[in-house]
Amino acid sequence: MTKAELDVFSLQGRFCIDTYAYYSVVFLSIKCIHKQIMGEYKLVILGSGGVGKSALTVQFVEGKFIGKYDPTIEDCYRKQIEIDGVDCMLEILDTAGTEQFTAMRDLYMKNGQGFVLVYSITSQATFNDLLDLKDQIMRVKDIGTNIPMVLVGNKCDLEDERVVGRHHGESLARSFGCTFLEASAKLETNVNEIFFDLIRQISRQSQRPKQSKQSSSRENTQTEQYSGCVQNYSSSHPDDRSTGHMRDCCVLL
């Protein structure tokens, strides 16, 4: 091989190495940006014991049905999904539904960004219990009515054992101001829809805080110019309450 041919071969080799290095850097950069913009969401599953909270969660995360009831103390699951073209990392807290663990709920609710309230269509008592759970969420979060939430009537495959009509669930959801779905962890009915809808609610809400904070800041400044004693009232303006969830979470669901 002549010297000229060796020089050409050497240049081609360096070109290949440089090209590989360039695309490696580009790939790593894209990967880093991807990690930075991936949304993270903290979701909390609430409801009385035996309504199927764990069954819904495991069906969504692992794609399998748990037929045997085993009371949960606390289980945390993580799952990466894509919703509307955006990668999301979900942290799902499956909470206890039994009486002895109710004291832990305040902490769950404080840290959660979105909530799934579950009852069984075969049990009126589990449906009635949701009123207290909703009130507790409102008390702990203290951010008005704009709390991402989905009301779920589980076990819709047990139609012959139904005691809670669908219209009752729809009516309660309207009073809560949230989405309503009947689901079956066993048949995989509306399982994905529960979590997808909740993530979309959180995403929509997270897009509003900046505008709300700027508006609230201007109102507080104007109020201070007239009377300092009115300042506390302005700081609790509904526009401010819509951003409250951002104090307890990072943007995980």
UniProtKB/TrEMBL annotation:
SUPFAM superfamilies: P-loop containing nucleoside triphosphate hydrolases. GO terms for cellular component: plasma membrane. Residues 206-243 are annotated as: Disordered. It comes from the Eukaryota. It is found in: Cell membrane. Keywords: Cell membrane, GTP-binding, Hydrolase, Membrane, Nucleotide-binding. Residues 206-218 have a biased composition (Low complexity). It holds the Pfam family Ras. One of its GO terms (molecular function) is GTPase activity. The keyword Transferase does not apply. Residues 219-236 have a biased composition (Polar residues). One of its GO terms (biological process) is signal transduction. This is Uncharacterized protein.
